[in-house]
């Protein structure tokens, strides 16, 4: 009888705890289907649903939606991009989201002290007051760090979060007027880090090369930069490159007095003499294609400059790609 009474008390205790606990709990996002979110890694795609997050009814202000707590300041100039990617932990999986991005390192103001507890509690309390929902708090594994870190183009930059020995807190705010907002922060006893991303789709500004665009740019600027695809380390124009060349043909056909120089350029990978030779061969290949399609050879000439005239420094793969180009230069 005593044993039955004890068991009954235990059940009653749990029942009371469930009914009386009104403290908001982090939403667990396991075993839910992905719905209207994008840019999630396949590892996390079946564990996260934006629809699990209720809409905030609070006016949250303008991006980045918050100031720093009193007594704290940005250590350096914040990292800000109108469109970029940032990785946030979904069930311990660092997951990429894209949009407007703000990242910074946080330190104490002169004469003040940095308190990890003050920084974290200030942010957490404020985010919850504007409808933020805690999605994750904890650490990512060492394996997870090594899985994703090379995918992050901003790894090591200002305010970077997402290391395997780093305690991360991640909130999401879902707004009807401003979309999905992701906030994560971390801190030690000396400084903190804060990331804010407003999710948005890419505004595509790239246009297909047209003969009209070529002529307009030549008349306006005297030259036009084109990216004609060639086979790797060869002067063979690819199918995609042919489409661009045919627009040059059309531009010259529609403007009989136009004469141009085809100037080939490379990045600084490889030997200088080889790059000059390759760039000249590629320019010659374009000229040959133009002549084959009825353009008088006196209207087109070819030059190869290799890596001697870069548009931008050859210090990143992105910049190297910009330097691998063909320029049409107006001769008359």
Automatic annotation (TrEMBL):
Pfam families: OmpA (PF00691)
Domain of life: Bacteria
GO cellular component: cell outer membrane
All residue ranges annotated as the OmpA-like domain in the record: 221-332
Ranges of Basic and acidic residues composition bias in the record: 317-332
Signal peptide range in chain numbering: none
Key word S-adenosyl-L-methionine present: no
Disordered as annotated region, ranges: 306-332
Subcellular location: Cell outer membrane
Keywords: Cell outer membrane, Membrane
Name assigned to this protein: OmpA/MotB domain-containing protein
Source organism phylogeny: Bacteria, Pseudomonadati, Bacteroidota, Flavobacteriia, Flavobacteriales
């Amino acid at each position: 009888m005593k044993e039955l009474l004890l068991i009954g008390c235990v059940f009653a205790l749990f029942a009371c705890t469930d009914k009386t606990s009104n403290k908001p709990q982090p939403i667990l996002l396991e075993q839910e289907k992905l719905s209207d979110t994008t840019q999630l890694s396949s590892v996390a795609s079946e564990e996260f649903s934006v629809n699990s997050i209720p809409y905030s009814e609070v006016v949250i202000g303008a991006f980045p939606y918050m100031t720093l707590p009193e007594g704290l300041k940005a250590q350096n100039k914040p990292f800000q991009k109108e469109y970029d990617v940032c990785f946030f932990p979904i069930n311990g999986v660092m997951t990429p989201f894209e949009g407007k991005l703000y990242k910074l390192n946080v330190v104490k103001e002169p004469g003040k002290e940095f308190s990890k507890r003050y920084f974290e509690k200030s942010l957490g309390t404020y985010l919850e007051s504007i409808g933020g929902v805690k999605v994750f708090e904890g650490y990512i594994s060492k394996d997870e760090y090594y899985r994703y870190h090379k995918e992050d183009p901003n790894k090591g930059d200002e305010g970077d979060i997402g290391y395997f020995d780093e305690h991360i807190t991640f909130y999401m705010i879902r707004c009807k007027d401003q979309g999905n907002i992701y906030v994560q922060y971390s801190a030690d006893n000396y400084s903190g880090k804060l990331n804010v991303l407003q999710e948005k789709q890419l505004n595509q500004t790239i246009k297909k090369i047209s003969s009209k665009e070529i002529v307009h740019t030549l008349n306006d600027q005297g030259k036009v930069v084109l990216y004609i695809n060639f086979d790797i380390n060869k002067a063979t124009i690819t199918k995609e490159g042919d489409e661009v060349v045919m627009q040059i043909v059309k531009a010259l056909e529609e403007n009989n007095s136009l004469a141009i120089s085809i100037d080939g350029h490379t990045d600084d990978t490889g030997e200088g003499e080889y790059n000059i030779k390759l760039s000249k061969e590629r320019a010659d290949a374009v000229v040959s294609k133009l002549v084959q399609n009825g353009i008088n050879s006196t209207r087109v000439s070819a030059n190869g400059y290799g890596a001697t005239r870069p548009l931008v420094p050859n210090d990143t793969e992105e910049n190297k790609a910009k330097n691998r180009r063909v320029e049409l230069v107006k001769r008359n």
